[in-house]
Specification:
With 253 residues, the chain is α/β, with parallel strands linked by helices. It contains 10 helices and 9 strands. A 7-stranded mixed β-sheet has the order 4-3-2-5-6-9-7, sandwiched between helices. Strands 1-8 form a two-stranded antiparallel sheet. Helix 5 links the parallel strand 5 and strand 6. Helix 7 crosses helix 10 and helix 8 crosses helix 10. The radius of gyration is 20 Å and the shape is elongated. The relative contact order is 0.12.
């Protein structure tokens, strides 16, 4: 029976074989590697991953799809909302130090998923995700670019990232109304030592009024925190490089 894509789950199923092969090549899975796929759907990506690794752990929220997936012996199915999955526990259950995480993420909740995974970065070897191209542009943007923002800073603090593949709408059924792309995210071995919650708060304040100079937003916040160091607040938030936000958060931590 054909599965009808569900709008509330943000389901757009990948159907282009050439694109699927390109994504699998970019992931480059090896036999026995602990692969975790978020949102396997109709197994377009799952099956070629299984063919290369032998076994894949999949996280699926849609009950009908989870039932279908459980009939495949090479799959370990976690039927859950990915935002409730403890990836440290998954690594422990698989008896591995690090996971390789992949997926065609639902575009309506892609940012919350990225922030959720940020909390488990210590048990992740790498991540390959298909996302809305616009989101990936923001993830990899440098300071001074109009796409540069909160997402850029929070993710670049912990990951080296690159846009590895463009995916047009016609690669899906039903086609989304946006262009997609695939991003590779590799956790940094020696990230700046800081309080993540503080960095998140700092960046949120800085970009709360991105067109204004920081004196009006971050400057006031720094005064409240009793900051006595030097930081140029005569700039806009998008002009400050990631390293400077990191250094500021580290000095406050």
């Amino acid at each position: 029976m054909k599965h009808i894509p569900r709008k509330r789950f943000g389901q757009n199923f990948l159907t282009d074989q050439g694109i699927i092969e390109s994504i699998v090549d970019a992931i480059n899975p090896k036999p026995g590697q602990p692969l975790v796929e978020i949102g396997p759907g109709l197994m377009a990506l799952t099956q070629p991953l299984v063919d290369r690794t032998g076994e894949v752990t999949v996280i699926e929220l849609d009950r009908d799809l989870a039932v279908r997936l459980r009939t495949k012996p090479q799959l370990r199915v976690i039927e859950s909302d990915v935002l409730k999955v403890n990836f440290a526990n998954v690594a422990q259950e698989l008896a591995v130090p690090k996971l390789r995480v992949v997926g065609n993420l639902p575009y309506n909740i892609s940012t919350p998923i990225l922030f959720h995974l940020l909390g488990f970065v210590d048990v992740v070897q790498d991540q390959h995700f298909m996302l809305q191209k616009e989101v990936i542009d923001r993830m990899v943007a440098d300071a001074g670019n109009s796409d540069y923002g909160r997402l850029s800073v929070m993710l670049q603090w912990r990951y080296a990232m690159e846009n590895v593949l463009f995916v047009p709408p016609e690669s899906f059924d039903p086609p989304p109304r946006v262009n997609s792309a695939v991003v590779r995210m590799v956790p940094r071995e020696q990230p700046a030592q800081l309080n993540p919650k503080l960095l998140e708060e700092l960046v949120q304040v800085a970009f709360s009024q991105r067109r204004k100079i920081l004196r009006n937003t971050l400057g006031k916040w720094l005064e409240e925190k009793g900051f006595s160091g030097t930081f140029d607040v005569q700039r806009r938030a998008e002009e400050v490089p990631v390293a400077e936000y990191e250094a500021l958060a580290a000095s406050l931590s």
